[in-house]
Specification:
mainly alpha
Length: 160
């Protein structure tokens, strides 16, 4: 019966296992901080992009502008909810110049690369969790992978 938490965590993580993934010596605090920073930047870019009128160009028609604004709002919403899930807050201004990035982002192309980055991150954290001896760290890894999978699914839905 003591082995049940181990089985639950490793059972969820094992489909993401890749023996070729190199794992650094990290801890959950570092991983959570990195995820909060990433999501805060994403939220800031999406928020800033939604504020720029005719962001996608002067030749864009009404429907294209409408779709872009909707995508900006949806991505900002997903980033905000995911950030809160990682224990972050949106109570500060971004530390870097976001406006330039917001003006240039093309969500369809961004999504192609972001999906790959999220899937790689899922694989990395799952592998990190599977290599941990501590059951609590394995549970944490399962929770982290679930958060990333949810982000992936929610962004996919937001960009439909």
């Amino acid at each position: 019966m003591d082995n049940e938490p181990y089985k639950a965590a490793t059972g969820y993580l094992s489909p993401y296992y890749d023996p070729g993934v190199a794992i650094r010596d990290e801890n959950p605090v570092e991983i959570e901080r990195a995820e909060r920073e990433r999501l805060f930047v994403l939220f800031s870019v999406a928020q800033a992009a939604s504020q720029i009128p005719r962001r996608i160009g002067g030749e864009a028609d009404y429907m294209e502008l409408r779709v872009d604004k909707r995508q900006c709002r949806r991505i900002a919403h997903v980033a905000q909810k995911c950030l809160i899930g990682w224990g972050g807050q949106i109570d500060k201004s971004p530390s870097r110049d976001i406006k330039k990035e917001a003006a240039q982002v093309i969500w369809d192309k961004w999504w192609e690369t972001h999906q790959i980055a999220l899937r790689n991150r899922i694989t990395y954290i799952a592998n990190w969790g599977l290599r941990q001896e501590d059951v609590e760290l394995q549970r944490w890894a399962k929770s982290a992978v679930m958060k990333l999978v949810n982000e992936l699914n929610w962004l996919d839905y937001a960009l439909r």
